[in-house]
Amino acid sequence: MPASDRRGLRNAVVTLRSRLERHALSLAALATAAVLAIMLYLPVGVVFVEAVLEAGRPTLAHFRSVLTDPFYVGALADVFAEPLAVGSHLEGVAGWLGAVSVSATVVRPIPGLELPVPWLALETPGVRLGLFGFTAYQAALSTLASVALGLPAAYVLATYEFRGRRTIRSLTILPFVLPGIMVAVGFYAMFGRGGTLNGLLGLVGLGPYPFIEGNPLAIVIVAHAFYNAPLVARVTVAAWESVDRRAVETARSLGASPRRAFRDVVVPQLFPAVLTGALLTFIFTFMTFPIVLALGGLQLATVEVWIYDRVRQLAYGEAATLAVLETLLSLGLTYAYLRYESAQSGLARSAGTPARRPLVPDLRTALSPRRLAIVAYGLVVLVVFVGPMASLIVGSVTDGSGLTLRHYAFLLERQLEGASYQTLPWIAIRNSLLFGVATLAVAVPMGVVISVVTARAGRAGAIVDALAMLPLAVSGVVFGIGLLRGLVFGIPLPGGWRFQVTGAVAIVAAHAVAAYPFVTRNVSPLLANLDPAMVESARALGASRYRALRDVELPLVASGIVAGAAFAFAISIGEFSSTVILAGGGDTYTMPVAVERYLGRRSGPAIAMGTVLLFVTAASFVVVDRVGGRFER
Amino acid sequence: MTDLELEGVAKRYDGTAALEGIDLTVRDGEFFTLVGPSGCGKTTTLRTVAGFESPTEGSVRFDGRAMDGVPPEERDVGVVFQSYALFPHMSVAENVGYGLRFRDPPDGQTVDERVRELLELVDLEGMGERDPDQLSGGQRQRVALARALAPAPDLLLLDEPMSALDAQLRESLRRQVKRIQSALAITTVYVTHDQAEALAISDRVAVMNGGRVEQVGRPQAIYREPATRFVAEFVGDNNVFEGTVRAREEDQARIDVGGETLAVSAVPPGADRVTVCVRPGALSRNVGTNRLPVTVETSEFLGETVRVHGRWNGVEIVLQLPGVPEADELTVGFDPDDAHVVATD
Fold this sequence. Notes:
The structure holds two protein chains of two kinds. Chain A is mainly alpha-helical.
């Protein structure tokens, strides 16, 4: 081949490559949009369509029947049935208010234990809450509990210096990624009839008390606090640390006492953070699923649990209608949260962080009432947070009579001798790890691309961001139904073709869609903090947009990408809601699903399986930590 | 090397105009400065030349080639930003060599040779292995300059490169930049809000205001013969009197300023309302014409001279005197030839 031809060919290759490079980002964005459309919007759309179709014709009958059924909406059913009869509704409210009375009583909060507590009881004539009302009610109680448990932690972490403070502060992110079903089993291992708490009480001749059976709602609420109190603490500490010390000092110099300066300067800056944490907690606990399913069952059914039950009964129409209503509610709440968050952002900017006092400077101070209160709070934290996880491990190697390995022996035996239709432990472990890796491979590029696209796109970027963050507001169960009814059952295409996604692929899709927002949330702030002049310098020096991304931006946000990857993996390992729907009768079940299936019979094997899940989750975090990730921004 | 032309360049964001029709020609090898207050459009103009912004109207031409739609990486420009924008994950040498990943070094040099040459040029020899965060602000800015120059660009664009540095460092770095620019004879566009810097360093200066160019010229011309009142007041200290032409004589005119009369020469023909500009140095106690009794308000000791702020006939007056005045009132005069008169628009 003559030299000129060769040069021509080389030029053509170079041109093609530079063209590809120039459009690499657009191509990646397009691919991401396609995945989102098929794996996220299509399934959600299927659920919405299902809710408004009856025998192929559009109808609102499903909504009407749900909204006028006291089982679902309680006392509001009359209002939805006859929205215009305002007079009679108001009469009803007035009559109810007239019957409210307050009285002092004595209650025994711990079932079976003679521990009288004086209580100011609010006597209200029974109002039928309905399914939605009860879901909101337990979410409100859970939010209260989370704030009550989280604020003291924020106070201690923000104002005292002690060994392990930074570690504990980092650990506040951990409950968020712990598998829900595992936490539920942990609570089971602690508070159950044969649990560690009853074991300890038995040593002093008490019990056993039926904590879970006696007051399942209380246990569910504590379990929700396990998840969300660290979240409240986390956002509050972040706000507290961003309070400018000089603002407090200015207030002091102007004559404010320490207490007054705290009230006038610090509290107003903490309030938005506490509200943010509370709103998020409400959203999460409104969509709660595995905790309630495992600890409460159908007698405590929330909307999410009920939808799951409808799916099991193959009542898809009803499930879809409920799913749409739930999604609309959670979308509204999420919208409120995002609006509120964006209104608050930019407030917190500080140079001087507040000084921290030593927690235990000397023995005298250590015995002061305030320090003793902190110690008491520490004990509560120990019971609520360490207790269930420790009980999980302890429960897996003990039974009523002492140490035993028979729970693990059961798992091994099941693996070796179990029939193929049974739930085999190794398959669950293998699936979890495989799906986790596959989720990483899909979710990390998606999340990064979305971060890059939204980083500097202004108003258009905000819209893309909102669309891409939808998974945060769509519950796993709803999404699972959408995938099941849409992609798994298949969508008919013209020409007799069917578009169908099944088994492992559908589950990985569900996990990836649930996980990529966490990648985006970790990467976006880092990208936004980069000096735009750096990318511009690279481009002026000859780098294409894609090369500037590869050479400059990505290396500088690597820590965010690794942290996002850790989240993605943990989300996949722990995902229960959509997996339990999609796994169905096949062999694509994961560890959380296996835990729930074992829970159905005796608790021992489930606790052992939960412990395996705990170790796999912990190991993956250690690996990521070694690789260089960090769980904090 | 390269001529740069801007013709009717306008830029609007959501309806608000950042640039309204900029016409400029920067000659080959020239050190050309865009100066003006913040928000005047000087940085937007520079970014349009670099290709980071595309003009809403008009065109940018390099050596007559229209640059419409050409991305920054294909324009062969070197850009230095105020924030340095060094890549923190690369060493100094990697930063300087980054542009050589995309363009071959000039004159058959290897990348290492070119990087070493550039580091020597900016007096940072031996610093190649350091990380950017181990350098001082002035050193970082010199690395940024070396990085921009390494691929031998046709055009060097400097966006307020000294603004983050302290005053002394700024002056020495300024001399270094000027020395390097003359040695390489590279066409350079420099953006600054500091008029003194603009006058000190440039071959020619464009004074910008409100998205327009008010005046283009050599520093001496800008200083001595400002074309508009804005330029007169923006560039250096000035005394500005608004008045009406009362009588024109052969080589002089009489201007009515708030009831008082001033004699000036060189009044633009045809103008009726005029602005008289007199530099502080031209107002002296020893000049017998145009005597102005000034009420002294404040004095600033500057070393060689004292800057005195005062008031005459309701107009603010700035004087440059050899010593602090003893009295609250003093009378100064100026020669009609020392006044520069522009037509009031």
